[in-house]
Amino acid sequence: MNSGMRRGLTSYGDPEFSAYLRKAFIKAMGYSEDAIERPIVGITNTYSDFNPCHGNVPQLIEAVKRGVMLAGGMPMVFPTITLHESFAYPTSMFLRNLMAMDTEEMILSLPVDSIIAIGGCDKTLPAQIMAIASANRPAIVLPTGAMLTGSHRGERLGACTDCRRFWARYRGGDIDASEIEEVSGRLVPSIGTCSVMGTASTMSGLCEALGLSLPYSGSIPAVYAERMRIAENTGRRAVELIAENLTPRDILTRKSLLNAMVVLQAMGGSTNAVIHLAAIAGRVGLQLDFDELDRIGRAVPVLVDLKPSGEYYMEDFHASGGFPALMAEVRDFLDLDVLSVSPTPFWQVLDTARADPTPRKAIRTIEAPVSSRGAIAILHGNLAPNGAVIKQSAASPSLMQHEGRALVFDGVEDLVARIDLPDLDVKPEDILVLRNAGPRGGQGMPEAGYLPIPAKLAKAGVKDMVRISDARMSGTGFGTVVLHISPEAAVGGPLSFVRTGDRIRLDVAARRLDLLVSDAELSERRAQWSARAKPRARGYAALFDRAVTQADKGCDFDFLVSEH
Ligand code: FES
């Protein structure tokens, strides 16, 4: 039988010897015959002293193991890479594919009959979904859950929208160095993922929408006892999935991706999720349909009243019914005929959520939305032939149609060197352009797209400007920020031809981003273009530079994308 401890035997040229040797070694860990004959559930351990977003992973693992054993399985924990946004140089996106490869290869290499992937911080859930999609063993994702909120001088605080808000106030001279220091001790009051609708919350919600997590897994705060109980249930369910042989590729279909897009728009989710969904789609032989995402955004309003698009925080969202309550509200846009890891059919989960009389202060109704349009719009134009994104729900309405003079920064270093110069020639109506910050040019597409307002304008009270780039932005960011311009400047995309002083027009209603320069002039600039940087030669960086795809393809490695 090719399962349990006999699965994927190490090759010595004699399978019976391999099985005998494996048994001998695992017995050294104290396991009995009974234990090693059980179905084996592999559990990824992504705990690290450098990852506070995963600070509850040891407790979650204990709860998951309990559930596995209650269901008659054998839990086996193994480590994988873990990623935290603030502890990933140069950027966590550079390492997402490494984590996906590590997780996939460990799943394929170990004798596990099903998998529980425990993750949370921004890039971890996408990496794990990409991995389980490619490995295609029965699998459930268990998010670590969001942190609680803190307070500062009577004001409620949550990472990391308020991190940025207070930093902007500090830059603008509104608060001093001692107060910003005080704030830094209050912004992250517990372990868990960021407490707003940033990338981590978005991805944990998309795990539910895609059918990869149990209902409510996406919203229960990290430190609640409820999270331990859902971990136990996840363990139980992972044993049942082995008998059902339900795999991620059964679950990840065009229909479930459409559901994810609906939920992404309705939750006011992070722009980063567009890249991750494109990568996940690629792992199962599909392409994310950007036109469809935009069409959904025109029909499905933002209903989740969480920062950065709204008012509240993840613990309020959970108290309002979490993702099942949200999905019940947009039920008419969802395809309910989809598979999921939950033993309860999707429609029944939504029926139960709809019947729940809990007041929903953080989830609006379709009739009274946070914003009448979805969170994310897809732009095209001569500056973004393969598309760009804008989080319109977090943008300034007055800047959604705007024409201005370009002020170009040639990379993140140039931005850092010049943005705060007192004699910088910049006006509030200018358009700030950052390039060479894409997947290749930025060595992993840093979250530098949220360009700071130049110090001299910030001090004068300017809060928002149109900013465009081939970079990403944290899901906790806000403002009129166009991101993921594709193709990026480093591979010769039109962004590389922009010169300071050119006119650029942004028209979100028309879904356009254009450089107002004649075609003839553009052709001339194109003819003069040459690549700035050579691909790196060594190690993972060399692999990354050779194989990373553009933002519209999810920044996955080209050799990891599935053809079917
Ligand atoms: Fe980990 Fe925000 S830093 S979720």
Q: Could you describe the 3D structure shown?
A:
By secondary structure, this protein is α/β, with parallel strands linked by helices. The protein folds into three domains: 38-148 and 190-355, Response regulator (Rossmann fold), CATH 3.40.50.2300; 150-184, no CATH class; 376-532, Glucose Oxidase, domain 1. 37% of the residues lie in helices and 12% in strands. It has helices at residues 15-27, 33-36, 57-70, 92-109, 124-135, 161-171, 177-184, 199-210, 225-244, 248-251, 254-267, 272-283, 290-299, 314-319, 322-329, 346-355, 412-418, 455-459, 519-528, 539-547; strands at residues 40-45, 74-79, 114-119, 139-143, 150-152, 155-157, 376-379, 388-391, 401-409, 431-434, 466-469, 481-483, 503-507, 512-515. The strands form three sheets. Strands 7-8-12-11-10-9-13-14 form an eight-stranded mixed beta sheet. It has a four-stranded parallel beta sheet with strand order 2-1-3-4, sandwiched between helices. α5 (124-135) runs parallel beside α12 (272-283) and α8 (199-210) runs antiparallel to α11 (254-267). The structure holds FE2/S2 (inorganic) cluster.
